[in-house]
Amino acid sequence: MLPAEFMDQSAERRIVAPGSVLLKRGSSPAWAMYIESGRVALGVLDGDALEHQLGEVEGPFWLEATAAVLNLPSAVDAVAESEVVMRRIPLPKFRQSLAAMPVAARTVLNDVAMAHRRQTELAVSRLAKDAEARCAEWLLRHAKPGDKGVLAVLLQQRKRLIAAQLGIAPETLSRVLRHLREQSLISGTGRVLNVIDPGGLRMLAGV
Question: Which residues make Cβ contacts (< 8 Å) with residue 18, sequence separation at least 6?
Fold first, then answer.
């Protein structure tokens, strides 16, 4: 976690009521947010309520600092479970402070943030998406340009391990891949799967 000293003490201080939505998944906040006190639930919203909850965190902590460090949209929804006292720093100012860090420290921070982001995205995918959507998202994430410019996925792990990553049974993974072939979204039956329709997979994955 970034130390509190990293935060500009002149940052705007706010008190937020319980039930307030602090972050929305897929949005790009203009602020980096430091929670001084209070409890925040993280998960996936349905309307203004968390339909799926990943867990909860309690101040002091940086809220979704990974997204701020990587300059990416939020990977989760965040809702105040209690009164929350927070400080907000304009994102450009936050990233300017990052740039002032020693190169080695910044590299480590970025690597840790990337690993945390992948784990969060996987956890959210398991909560919010069905087996086909998870599989489509996984294929898109691992697709690389192959022969004749066609995107391809090299299955470097056994299917049971891939299925475990996706939170589904190996039999379900086989069924989903068969269905994707029948829909002409992918082709191939061995260690290499060709992505025939990336747009169709993106629609299925919801990305």
Answer: 80, 81, 82, 83, 84
